[in-house]
Amino acid sequence: MASSNSTSDDTIEKSAKIDFSEPLEITRTKTIPLEGTSTSASASASRQPAIFEKSVDQLDGGDKAKKAGVKEKTLDITEHLFSIEDIAARHGTGVDLAKPGSSFGLSSEVAAARLIENGPNILAPPKQISPFMKFFHCLTSLFNLLLILAGILNYVLLAIDPKNNKVNTYLGAILIIVAFLNALIEFYQAQKSAAVLQSFLNLMPQKCNVIRNGKVIAIPAADLVLGDVVFSRMGDKVPADVLIFACTDMKVDNSSLTGESDPQDRNPANEHKNPLEASNLAFNGSLIVNGEGYGLVIRTGDNTVLGQIAGLTAGEDAGKSPLSREIDDFVKIIATIAITTAIVFFLIGYFAVYRSKGSSGISSTLNFAVGVFVAWVPEGLPATVTMLLTIAAKRMASQNVLVKDLTGVETLGAITLLATDKTGTLTRNQMTVTNIWSSDTMYSAFRSAANAGSPFDASSPGIPEVLTISALCSRAKFDRTDVPISERQVLGDATESGLTRFAAANIGNFDDMNDLYPKVFEVPFNSENKWAMTIHDKSHDHGRFTLLMKGAPERILRLCGTILINGSAIPLTAEHAKSYEKMYALMASKGHRVLAFAQMLLPDDQYPDNYIFDKEKKNYPTNHLCFVGLVSLEDPPKHGVREAIGRCRSAGIRVMMVTGDHPLTAEAIGRKINLMLSDTKELVAKNRGCSVEEVGDDEYDAVVIHGEQIDSLSEGDWDLIFSKPEIIFARTSPKHKLQIVKHAQALGHIVGVTGDGVNDSPALKKADLGIAMNISGSDVSKEAAAMILLDDNFASTIRGIEEGRLIFTNLKKSIQYTITHSMPEVIPNLLYVIASIPLPISAILILVIDLGFELCISLSFAWDKPESESGLMKLPPRKPVTPASIERRRRLATRILPPVIDPESGEEVKPSFMARFQHDFKALFTRVYWREKFEHTEDEILVDANLLSWAYLEIGIIETIGALVVFFVVLYKEGGLTPAQAVEYQKQDLFSSTSPQENQDLLAKAQSLFYLSIMVMQLFNMFACKTKYRLPFGKYMFSNTRSFIGAAVGCALGFFVVYCPGLPVVFGTSNDTPFVYLLIAFAFGVFILFYVSVRQLVLRKLRPTTLNDEIIGLNMVPTIKTIFSRTKSIQRTT
């Protein structure tokens, strides 16, 4: 049904070739000649059309600027410009234009041959990585490689000195096993998500009706070949790209391909050159919502428009998530420090201490260097990170959000820009009755104070007639009648479907209406009349027949001479017309689709019971009708969308709409859902009464960009667009969506993209986080996305953002807690060589700390709650995009080694590893590099200077001092050794394995208490790490009960290692360790809390927390959940 207020787009006169993307690095091994290049028509007919390549001369200026000789993937569609006879002859197909059902089609033999030659009509599945390679990828993360390297070094030491390094047998194995376990956890989670996703994909083979050998047969759509004649009717999906040569009232829904929400008319006549605009083409995957038709298959499989769009996804690299990059950067820092420290102190130890001991000195020095290396590496951190993300992913799954990649959990919390599709994502993709004007009264079909009009009542004057016309003057129908109306699917045009649902919800005996009042005559809607009419056997006081009509308001009004007021038809006056114009303008101004309804009670003196209505004779009335009223429909926002977008914007996340729909429709929806509150440049000019050119760029905050403008935008234009807080892109193609994402990422945005259609899939893949819909989403979009909303609820995105921000905060707390104990492990090892103190902690106890009580406690951070209920969503994104950040990003981009151009192919080639290493190594010795490295930014990264200072310079040093104090107090109290005497004992090897047993026992007690002291102080550090914006006291400290469970389990494990009989042989501890000395560690723990409290107060003054500015005009009133107000229903009886 035509929209009365829709703006018809100008025909886009473009080339007949569709450019789906910027140049793709895809090559074809086989080029098949087009028509005119083959030796025979039949040979040409049996082959898929070519994918051809532009030469350098054919590239436009922008393409040439990018690269020379680039191969661009385009699809040559020209069949819509030729007659059906020519195309049928080209494919050797027999068609009968007069009687399409009598066409011969292809013979079975020819069809079988073409199927063998060209392959089945299916999309090539995306390349699957084998489970082994997935596991290998998990295993070769930088952190795991660091653990494996540490494990191998332990075995190197074992090979050098097997006698003194027996414990390395266990150390090396533990480190390597930890790396494999960490990889296994990550691999298991990825496989589990993939299995869940696979269960959502459509596995049912599609069937279609095809004419072969002059007979209509049903075959799998995969068996279609070029030249087949297919027959499709309402409710069917088009099985391939077809050229329509006969149809009846056929309309298709292209929203999954183009984002266009309005059904598109299809007929054999075509006046458009652009294939996507052509009225005689129907594309694979489109849904037929009205009528039926016959088409000739001109594209199958990957060569269909659907296949080409899906192909863009394979050409895009999703890249690493922000969290993955930051973890890699942290690992590089730790590895650099560990390796450098190990080498430096190996040299110091060898030349200062062990040189005189010959080969045994080298072994001892290597043993010490590896100990330092292992002490620096937080062995339990990879497992902690993976487990925390896994726990968060499970929490999100319980909220109907499926995460395919673990790091995607945090990425959602880090996004700065959310680009969302409209149809099916923000809106229901279901036209819904909104307002009714009848009997000079406006009614609202919604129970909403924001909607103008009186509350809807199905028995109000004029409403029964509106419901009757909605039910009877329609071709839409339910797919079944044995289930409640809310569970049924409507087969038909989107507008008629909306009217049908509305009528069914308010007419008690709706399913019997067509039987009670059978249709005796019909004039379907057409573009010339712009109305649809039906005549029913529905008796009244003056006769048997009732004429019902609906259509474009201005057309319907012309046909009417009376108007229905309070159940009576009275003459239509100028006053009535004025009221009509006012109500029509009000409905249309909201972006609604408006229809007018009319009826005529046919008198029996002109239309007796045996009267035969005839289309050819036009013996039916088309004037002097009775105007019943106006009905407006819209594709309403989904429940919760308005609040979700409002909360996104309050959280500092920019939300923009990227849709294939009309700009006016997109803007109207945007203004209802908090996406657009400000005036556009055009509105500012209109309000000021000046021209658009007179409005400055700083005088407006909202922009609506038409897709036709995108290709001509300069970098300055893009910068201007993304500087605005409210952005809508309309009439966009898949190529445009990809460009938008890339330009946003180039400015430093962490981009999230939501969508459900095939046309969204390239952007979903390229985005930092692609979010697909499960129920309404296409299989291609689900494959491309990193996250899937299982219930299609956009509001779930907000819960995901909160969860993402919370897991980042908790992950940071966990890392801050975990790496603090590195200093009490590293510094004693260094003092062991430099100052010759007895070794306070052995390598095996370091591993027990990292993989024992520390792991139990660090995992408990996963359940920490936010410090305030809404605080996280009031903070800006952790990597905000500002003019300063954009300038810095562009400056840093000039330092990156640019790609080289292959002289033969002209394609960009990534520089070699050695070239990049050489470039980066040289940069280390430049002043610019270090100035930019320590440049102050507003970004918050996972491991920042504040965290490193906490762990290595502040709390880490306090814990080191505390543990050493306990160590030397034990040596003094239990063995009578002062620190100076202990050093002398060490120099004389009186603590070695050959020394007196009492000395060995004394050292074991001291080492055991050093180990337990770290554990005790870390318990206090755990509470100190929990808060960032408040002091570490109060009710919040008890909000996470799992912290106490983790602490209890960790302490039990720690004391078990020390006091369990038999374990001292393995760990070098002592069962006779006195507990009383841990009071010193408790005292240092209390001092840690005091120090942290002072630190918090000082930082509040120096660096106060910045919250997002309040956005004026946000409407946070909950959107309605029910579509219709069902206060009353009409009970009709015979």
UniProtKB/TrEMBL annotation:
Main location: membrane
Any single GO BP term: sodium ion export across plasma membrane
Membrane topology: Multi-pass membrane protein
Transmembrane segments: 135-158, 170-188, 330-353, 830-853, 950-972, 1044-1069, 1075-1094
Annotated SMART domains: Cation_ATPase_N (SM00831)
Biased composition, class Low complexity, residue ranges: 37-46
Keywords carried by this UniProt record: ATP-binding, Cell membrane, Membrane, Nucleotide-binding, Translocase, Transmembrane, Transmembrane helix
GO CC, any one term: plasma membrane
Residue segments, region Disordered: 1-20, 29-48, 255-275
Designated name of the protein: Cation-transporting P-type ATPase N-terminal domain-containing protein
